[in-house]
Write a structure and sequence with these properties.
The complex is a heterodimer of chains A (about 600) and B (about 270). By secondary structure, chain A is mainly α. Chain A is built from 18 helices and two strands. Chain A has a two-stranded antiparallel sheet with strand order 1-2. In chain A, a hairpin with a 2-residue loop joins strand 1 and strand 2. Chain B is α+β, with helices and mostly antiparallel strands and about 270 residues long. Helix content of chain B is about 30%, strand content about 20%. In chain B, the strands form two sheets. Chain B has a five-stranded mixed sheet with strand order 3-2-1-5-8. Chain B has a five-stranded mixed sheet with strand order 4-10-9-6-7. The chains are: A mainly alpha (about 600), B alpha+beta (about 270). The interface between A and B is large, with 105 and 97 residues. The complex binds protoporphyrin IX containing FE and copper (II) ion (2 copies). The site of protoporphyrin IX containing FE has 24 residues of chain A, from helix 9, helix 12, helix 13, helix 14 and helix 15.
């Protein structure tokens, strides 16, 4: 099996023995996938907790008239005890606010959603879906996980740095980031490590998908999820090196006295900043967004792939427009490289460039709308099963749509004049990544959990989790669009210092309550995750009666995955084929 | 009309610049279309969920009629967007950002932003801005105005206070001493980053008299939230009066004004 089809020697090694080699320093893609899954869920929880502290501050930013420091509420005394310096009496110091803000964004994007969508599900599911025994480079795969973990720890350790964690936003705009305290150096080093880890993964994914597909699995029969992973890997490979270089330049500006991003005669702390100057702060923004716009599709495509899988399985019919879906993903991949400056209409970039980037940005709505059309039309003529994964997948559609639609007034430069750097932007991208990507990733967890652990998660707890996630999420993010329309800026520690924000401050209290509810709503998920490991209903090989190859091996799959290499006879979504005895026809079932 | 309804589409009132109406129109148009598209999509979604739920005796169909038209909605949306670009984006952006009114017919003011204050420099009666130099910056001379330059003698420098005449364009030539800031007045529906090492421009023609808040829209450090100024829009004669008062009150090296807000000192967090 190993070499018959010229496969890389992925399975040449024997199954490792001993707990450490089997479950810790494992080279098995499934173990690594689960390591990524657990690690990124933990990071998501950490990033979310930071945001809860910030939302507490925003809900009640200043002491009420009858505030009495002698009689603190339970929450205030707790916060006062936990952070005596940075949250006295439970009111947050702006420096701490900026630290939490920068770290929340960085953690959620680079340590949460991306590793969950790409590394966890990609690692676990993709080799199974292509019928491979493992990734092409198992050791590189292991290196990728451990590099990632080190990078994440370096980022978190920045809280211990003198002056605290990074505080220049997840975007780290120079010169603020260059003159910031030591935590920013941790951020840059951490990012370089994380990017390196992503590059390891991207190469591995591409090689695996191109070289190790089972016999008969042509590209045209590849599940949409694999296509999404392929496009994502290419985006990472081409976009991340640019930020890596940019981050190294910023590091040099900070530690080696260079001036890549520092203009002449910068005055900092009442004196001229001791640099030769000649650099340009806007250069950083170009390098950053050249990565960060493709990055938003890295956040989105794997979840879209998950949605496609779940919808196909639970509508019991072929996806509407498989080719159009795949084609749209490829088109998004290409276009995402030529839109980055829509984040920079007001940066001081030449104003005549705007119309060009407006046009490219709006062209992206073609594949985006096409994908939504295909997923929506897939429901037509279906026989829809409303299980927990499907609920999450369905909820993705209307909520992601809000994210996509709100991109429109941001993409038009004249309307961006009013909305740029307001809560409208925050509302927009959270609708894409939280009620969008994150919801899809939670759905994916429910969907593939039976494969990973051999047992199903509880449907009852799953449905409680679903409603306690979807409803509060909308109360968290929709009011942000309202606040942003009214002109409330993002990244304000005490928004009420600006009187023009006062009329919409009330929404922040509602957002705060909703965010706390959302946090509570994750408890059923955590319980479900651990409880089902032992007590869930046994799943069997193919609990959802699905067609793709990951359901053709035992749950959980043994080392090497398939007893014999599967052969593929048909496309990925042959459901309800007329005349076939069941309503699903697995890819590997001989006619 | 909007005023009469008392419903302003969630936009801050009053809209106080000559181009705010155009921007509001485009914002409202886009949101109406977005809501319409959304309602159509969600209605279809709900119908499908109800009609095609799994139930006994119901089997999914193997075929997907209409697949070849998957790009049709996307194409329609694109056509609409291209129309919006040509009809609105290009002209509005061109007028607001790519050009300014003739400087000779406008009030020209320099804005020198710093952590966490707005310094405004008016040229004074001679119409000439005095020379500035980074080397001359001190706590008292925040913008580094050169006292030896004759043009600087009559310059007016204010902190956090921008006075401008009603109905005449003001052109702000903006730069920053330290990090990136962003000049935002929500009632003007405009904002612009202010970047050290270069000059960016923002112009506006106020259409409503009154006082509006200047906020900083780009994270610039610990005092970012408190970086607030005020723009006062007054009649031409009130404005001339105010200028005379400033010239009488202040010598060029005296940068404070009576109504200036206290400035939060910049903190060198690098040390
Ligand atoms: C569907 C079409 C989309 C359009 C037209 C669009 C447009 C834009 C524009 C113009 C901005 C900049 C706004 C500003 O700063 O003033 C923006 C911000 C952002 N978008 Fe989108 N977007 C779209 C989809 C997405 C998707 C799919 C994602 C993520 C999966 C995403 C994530 C983000 C993020 C993270 C930001 C904010 C970054 C920051 O400033 O911190 N967007 N979007
Ligand atoms: Cu973007
Ligand atoms: Cu600021």
């Amino acid at each position: 099996m190993t070499d018959a089809h010229g496969h890389a020697g992925a399975h040449a090694h024997a199954e490792p023995q001993g707990f450490i080699w089997k479950y810790v320093f494992s080279v098995d893609h499934k173990v690594i996938g689960i390591q990524y899954l657990v690690t990124s869920l933990v990071f998501l929880l950490i990033g979310f907790s930071m945001m809860l502290l910030m939302r507490w501050q925003l809900a009640i930013p200043t002491p009420p008239d009858d505030f009495d420091p002698e009689k603190l509420s339970l929450i205030r005394s707790f916060l006062n005890w936990l952070f005596p310096e940075s949250m006295p009496y439970g009111f947050m110091d702006p420096v701490f606010y900026n630290q939490l803000g920068a770290m929340h964004g960085t953690i959620m994007v680079f340590l949460g959603i991306v590793p969950l969508g790409v590394a966890a599900f990609g690692n676990y599911v993709m080799p199974l879906q292509i019928g491979a025994p493992d990734m092409a480079f198992p050791r590189l795969n292991m290196a990728s996980y451990w590099t990632f973990l080190v990078g994440g720890i370096v980022l978190l350790a920045s809280f211990l740095a003198p002056g605290g964690a990074p505080q220049s936003g997840w975007t780290s705009y120079a010169p603020l980031s260059v003159v910031a305290p030591a935590g920013q150096t941790y951020w840059l080093i951490g990012m370089v490590i994380i990017i390196t880890s992503s590059l390891f993964g991207a190469i591995n994914f591409i090689v695996t998908m191109l070289n190790m597909r089972a016999k008969g699995l042509t590209m045209g029969r590849l599940p949409v999820f694999c296509w999404a992973q392929l496009v994502t890997a290419v985006l990472l490979l081409l976009a991340f090196p640019v930020l890596e270089a940019g981050a190294i330049l910023q590091l040099l500006d900070r530690v080696a006295g260079t001036s890549f991003y520092i203009p002449k005669d910068l005055i900092y702390g009442s004196t001229v900043f001791p640099r030769a100057g000649g650099g340009n702060p806007i250069l950083w923004q170009h390098l950053f967004w050249f990565l960060a716009h493709p990055e938003v599709y890295v956040l989105l495509l794997p979840p879209m792939g998950i949605i496609a899988e779940i919808i196909a399985t639970n509508t019991r019919k072929p996806l509407f427009g498989y080719r159009e879906l795949v084609g749209s993903m490829l088109l998004i991949g290409v276009l995402s490289f030529i839109v980055w400056a829509h984040h920079m209409f007001l940066s001081g970039m030449r104003t005549s460039l705007a119309s060009l980037f407006v046009t490219t940005t709006l062209t992206i709505s073609v594949p985006a709308v096409a994908i939504l059309t295909c997923l929506l039309m897939s429901l037509r003529g279906a026989s829809i099963r409303f299980n927990t994964p499907m609920l999450f997948a369905l909820a993705f559609l209307p909520m992601f749509a809000i994210g996509g639609l709100t991109g429109l007034p941001l993409g038009f430069a004249p309307t961006d004049l009013h909305l740029h750097d307001t809560y409208y932007v925050i509302g927009h991208f959270h609708y894409v990544v939280a009620p969008g990507s994150l919801i899809a990733l939670l759905g994916g967890t429910y969907y593939w959990y039976p494969k990973m652990f051999g047992r199903r998660m509880s449907e009852k707890l799953g449905k409680i989790h679903f409603w306690m996630t979807v409803i509060p999420m909308n109360f968290v993010f929709f009011p942000m669009l309202i606040q942003g329309m009214y002109g409330m800026q993002r990244r304000l520690a005490v928004p009420v210092e600006q009187s023009h924000n006062l009329p919409v401050q009330g929404w922040s209290l509602i957002i705060g309550i909703a965010a706390a509810t959302l946090f509570v709503g994750q408890i059923p998920f955590i319980i479900n995750f651990f409880w089902s490991l032992r007590s869930g209903e046994a799943a069997g090989e193919n609990p959802w009666n699905a067609t793709t190859l990951e359901w053709a091996c035992p749950s959980p799959p043994p080392h090497g995955n398939f007893a014999t290499e599967p052969e593929v006879f048909r496309g990925p979504y042959e459901y309800s084929v007329p005349g076939h005895k069941t309503d699903y026809w697995p890819q590997d079932e001989a006619a | 009309m909007r005023e009469e309804w008392g419903f302003h589409w969630g936009l801050p009132q009053p809209a106080a610049s000559s181009y705010a109406g155009d921007i509001d129109f485009l914002l409202i148009l886009l949101h109406v279309v977005m809501v319409a598209l959304y309602v159509i999509g969600v209605a279809l979604f709900v119908v499908f969920l109800v009609k095609y739920r799994a139930r006994d005796g119901h089997r999914a169909s193997y075929t997907n009629p209409g697949e070849s038209a998957s790009f049709l909605p996307a194409g329609l949306v694109l056509a609409f967007e291209i129309w919006l670009i040509l009809a609105f984006e290009v002209p509005i952006w061109g007028a607001v950002k790519k050009s300014t009114p003739p400087p000779a017919e406008s009030l020209n003011v320099k804005l020198i932003a710093q952590q966490f204050a707005w310094n405004f420099q008016y040229p004074g009666p001679d119409g000439q801005f005095g020379r500035r130099s980074a080397a001359l910056v001190t706590a008292e001379n925040a913008i580094g105005l050169d006292p030896d330059d004759p043009a600087s003698k009559d310059d007016i420098v204010t902190i956090n206070q921008l006075h401008v005449p009603l109905g005449k364009p003001t052109i702000l030539g903006m730069t920053s001493k330290d990090v990136i800031h962003d000049f935002q007045v929500v009632n003007f529906r405009n904002k612009q980053d202010i970047v050290p090492g270069m000059e960016t421009v923002l112009w506006f023609e106020p259409t409503v008299a009154g006082k509006f808040e200047i906020g900083c829209a780009q994270l610039c450090g610990l005092g970012h939230t408190k970086m607030v100024g005020q723009v006062t829009i007054e009649t031409e004669s009130e404005f001339e009066e105010w200028k005379k008062q400033q010239v009488a009150d202040a010598s060029p090296s005296d940068t404070g004004t009576a109504d200036a807000r206290p400035v939060i000192p910049a903190v060198d967090s690098h040390s």
